[in-house]
Design goal:
Layout lengths: L7 H11 L8 H23 E5 L11 E2 L4 E2 L1 E5 L2 H4 L7 E6 L2 E13 L2 E6 L2 E5 L7 E2 L4 H7 L1 E2 L10 E6 L4 E3 L2 E5 L2 E5 L36 E9 L3 E10 L2 E8 L10 E6 L2 E6 L20 E8 L2 E6 L2 E7 L8 E9 L4 E11 L12 E4 L3 E5 L13 E8 L5 E2 L2 E2 L4 E7 L7 E3 L8 E5 L5 E5 L4 E7 L3 E2 L3 E10 L1 E2 L4 E2 L2 E2 L2
Antiparallel strand pairs: 1-4, 2-3, 4-36, 5-6, 5-36, 6-26, 7-8, 7-25, 8-9, 10-24, 11-14, 12-13, 13-24, 14-23, 15-20, 15-24, 16-17, 16-23, 17-18, 18-19, 20-21, 21-22, 26-35, 27-30, 27-34, 28-29, 31-32, 32-33, 36-39, 37-38
Length: 501
């Protein structure tokens, strides 16, 4: 057979005909390549950089909203790269595998980093390196604390939460505005013996009618409070005094008015059992300028006073003027008062008054107050301390159940016919019993630590010992919660788009 040789020029011509001309569309190949790259990039983003999560429960409310009954579940973006290059830091909101069920992801705030000891006392969190050291109250960074404050009043309340108490015959109260003539005193929620926790404190107002209050909420007195607003002092005002009470103590923040002497200074007075401790602005190292200070006539001044984590603070126009540390107290009964020292014709106006409270941390359901966090482990708490499954109460529960593959000889079960299962023993997630009736009676569903679900006849299961599991190992932490990006429902006045602090 004679081999036919194709001229070189014909080779080139055939190649040119086989090659698509410039600009010729190849839609199938282009679409497949684009889809492949999109899938690869999505997988890379999901596995290594950022991932979206849905919040199904209310354990982090109001920071993160999750209420299946109301159909409101925040979607958050989780940064998975940061914890590859560094360890989690205190107060960050982290996503991690639930230690009692590795198939579930939880979202909580990091509050304990081992090795250290943690305790919950008087509504605050405390820590120390070891038992030889004194307990130190934990204080949040400024941005985290701003997110933690819970507003106790509405933006536009139908009835004012403020009442005139002493004198103040010419005083007027309207919503969050107070107009004063002459000396007098007003109080916040004066019908109550103390400011107390409420489950819906701090929630966005548009969400309050939609959400389901928890039946587990435990009402407590709360002493960590903040009062803020805007004051405009007119003629004849000697001083404005803002008072926060905690137990038997009264913290009186005095702001000199336009009628005060030229050398008057802001101060805070603490009275306890008749004794008086005074600390004024020039003595505080944080105050750069020690000059006297007074309210300027007819000039609005924004103010804030707070008792937070056993530290008193006064801010004027966003500047920290003075601080004073005080001893912790078990008595958290509290109140908020506002005094004006003025001549009979003296005038002042307070606007945008708002009282806020801090998170009041509760002990676990078993009354545990102190734990020792081992190295390489983390202690996690939910911001919704009244209704959060978190490190305060995690434990394993052991059950003896029938062996899935029992050994039988001549129809008789031998040793090994039962086995131990380690399951979620959280008081909120205990085993569930289903009454299926019939000969077998009720069935028990047990979910083990790896998320495997099995059903057994109730009479075949024996409950055993428990094992504490309060901490999250480092390798189980998945990422850091960055931002809420959904839901966005402007027609319902619901826009959940914000950074997570």
């Amino acid at each position: 057979m004679t081999e036919e040789r194709i001229p070189e020029s014909e080779h080139s011509a055939r190649a040119d005909r086989a090659r698509p001309e410039a600009g010729t569309a190849t839609p199938w190949r282009d679409n497949i390549e684009a889809m492949t790259m999109a899938i690869v990039m999505a997988l890379l983003l999901k596995c290594f950089i950022v991932e979206a999560y849905k919040i199904p429960t209310g354990s982090m409310q109001p920071t993160l909203i999750g209420d299946e009954e109301a159909g409101l579940e925040d979607r958050i973006l989780v940064d998975k790269l940061t914890y590859v290059v560094r360890d989690p830091e205190r107060w960050e909101v982290a996503v991690f595998r639930y230690p009692l069920n590795h198939a579930q992801n939880f979202v909580k705030r990091v509050v304990g980093i081992g090795p250290e000891e943690i305790k919950v006392e008087f509504g605050d969190l405390w820590h120390r390196s070891n038992e030889d050291e004194d307990w130190v109250v934990m204080r949040r960074p400024v941005d985290v604390q701003e997110a933690a404050w819970k507003r106790l009043d509405l933006e536009d309340p139908p009835e004012s939460s403020w009442s005139v108490l002493d004198r103040g015959e010419g005083w007027e109260v309207e919503g969050r505005t107070l107009r004063t003539v002459g000396p007098g005193r007003a109080g916040f929620r004066t019908g109550n013996s103390s400011v107390r926790t409420n489950y819906m404190d701090g929630y966005p107002e548009a969400l309050v009618p939609l959400l389901t209050p928890s039946h587990r909420h435990r009402v407590t007195n709360v002493g960590d409070l903040r009062l803020e607003g805007v004051v405009t002092a007119l003629t004849g005002v000697d001083a404005v005094v803002l008072e926060l009470r905690e137990g038997m103590r009264r913290y009186r923040f005095r702001i000199p008015g336009p009628a005060a002497t030229a050398d008057a200074r802001p101060s805070v007075e603490v009275t306890t059992d008749g004794s008086l401790v005074r600390r004024s602005a020039p003595e505080v190292p944080r105050q750069a300028a020690a000059d006297p200070w007074r309210l300027t006539l007819e000039r609005p001044t924004r103010f804030a006073v707070e008792n937070l984590d056993d530290r008193l603070a006064l801010e004027l126009d966003g500047q920290l003027i003075l601080v004073l540390d005080v001893e912790a107290t078990a008595d958290q009964g509290s109140s908020v008062r506002l005094d004006v020292e003025a001549a009979p014709e003296g005038h002042a106006e307070f606007a945008d008054l708002m009282v806020l409270r801090d998170i009041y941390y509760l002990e676990g359901d078993r009354g545990r107050t102190e734990v020792s966090v081992p190295e390489g482990h983390y202690f996690m708490l939910g911001d919704n301390t009244q209704n959060s499954s978190d490190s305060r109460e995690w434990r394993f529960q052991y059950y003896r159940v029938p062996n899935d593959s029992p050994i039988e000889v001549d129809g008789e079960r031998l040793d090994g016919s039962t086995r131990l299962v380690r399951a979620d023993g959280n008081l909120r997630h205990d085993m569930r019993i289903f009454d299926r009736g019939g000969v077998d009676g009720a069935s028990i569903e047990i979910v083990d630590e790896f998320g495997e679900r099995r059903f057994y006849r109730e009479r075949e299961v024996t409950r055993g010992a428990t094992e504490d599991a309060f901490f999250v190992p480092r390798h189980m932490i998945q990422g850091r919660a960055l931002a809420v990006f959904w839901p966005i429902l402007p027609w319902k006045d619901i826009v959940r788009f914000e950074w997570i602090h």
